[in-house]
Hints:
Elements: H1 2-95, H2 112-116, H3 146-187
Organism: Nothobranchius furzeri
Keywords: Coiled coil
InterPro entries: CCDC13
Amino acid sequence: MLKAQVTTLLETSKQNEELISAMLKQQSQTQMVLKQFSQQQSEHKLNLTESVESSALIQKLKQVVAEKDVKIKELQKRLQQFSRLRKEESVDRCSSSTLTSCSSDMSPEDGDVNKRITSDSVSKYGHRLVVPGMGHNIEYKSLCCPHCSADVSLLMTQSDEYKILSVEKDRLLEMVQDLQMKEMEMNQ
């Protein structure tokens, strides 16, 4: 009888050890699953934070692009008004029978405009201005006085600023598109 009890106890002990071993294995697997879940949550939070930051940056860039667009439209409008005004004044001056000669020794077509814009001239946006080469779309020959050459110089500066703003706007739009693509990739 004692022998039967010892055998029963040994079998029970063996079963208990197997049960404990299985439970420890299950606990280890559960801890691994929890660890993976925790990592996934951390990654999800990080992605969410990056997505929010990207969205905020995209909104800021869109606002900057909109502001630049408004500035470009203003410059275009001023450029058109100025061109129209210059054409009207030029036509009036040149068609007048009492045409006065230029008060300076050098007429605008002789290079006065080019001398007003030096190699170190800078626009109000901090960009270095360059004298355009031949074939610029502003006609110097219709101008009759040094005052006009100053106006042409101003017009050329505004034109250059418009071109610079346009390039900057295109660059910002490209950055916005890149950020939107990255945000879409992160959300997938």
